[in-house]
């Protein structure tokens, strides 16, 4: 069970994008892609067989997971994530500051 998952709302805590928020698009090991953050230009080659056009496209580059924290909407701040196992053996993610469960990523 990962502390940050696809669909989570995060806030960047270090680097050139510090203070910005976004939704996690993908988790790739220790790196994550965040919607609208860490944008880079990439030169793409066109492929007439697939009907794709070439050119320069903007896309999200991965950020290291240590440079982001999950965003707690109740406190409007970055928070850490812990785990709680209930009496049925179900493991859930909780905010360390308040103990409230993390909203399910949609």
Structure explained in plain terms:
- There is one protein chain.
- The model has no long low-confidence stretch (mean pLDDT 92).
- The protein has a domain at 9-77: SH3 type barrels (Roll).
- It has strands spanning 9-12, 21-28, 31-34, 39-44, 55-60, 63-64, 68-72, 77-79, 81-85, 91-95.
- The radius of gyration is 17 Å and the shape is elongated.
- The chain has 106 residues and is mainly beta.
- The strands form 3 sheets. Strands 6-3-2-1-7-8 form a 6-stranded antiparallel beta sheet, with no helix packed on it.
Widest sheet, order of strands: 6-3-2-1-7-8
Helix-strand pattern: EEEEEEEEEE
Strand percentage, roughly? over 45%
Which structural class best describes the helix and strand composition?
Answer: mainly beta
For the largest beta-sheet, the strand count, sense and barrel status come to: 6 strands, antiparallel
Q: The CATH topology of one domain is what?
A: SH3 type barrels
Tell me which oligomeric state these chains represent.
single chain
The name of the CATH architecture of one domain is: Roll
Low-pLDDT sequence parts: none
Using only CA atoms, what is the Rg?
17 Å
CATH top level label of one domain: Mainly Beta
């Amino acid at each position: 069970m990962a502390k940050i998952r696809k669909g989570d709302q995060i806030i960047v805590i270090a680097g050139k994008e510090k203070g910005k928020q976004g939704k996690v698009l993908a988790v790739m090991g220790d790196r994550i892609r965040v919607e609208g953050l860490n944008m880079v230009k990439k030169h793409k080659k066109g492929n007439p067989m697939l009907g794709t056009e070439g050119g320069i496209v903007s896309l999200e580059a991965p950020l290291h997971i240590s440079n982001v924290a999950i965003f707690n909407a109740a406190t409007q701040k970055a928070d850490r994530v812990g785990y709680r196992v209930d009496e049925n053996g179900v493991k859930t993610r909780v905010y360390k500051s308040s103990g409230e469960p993390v909203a399910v990523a949609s």
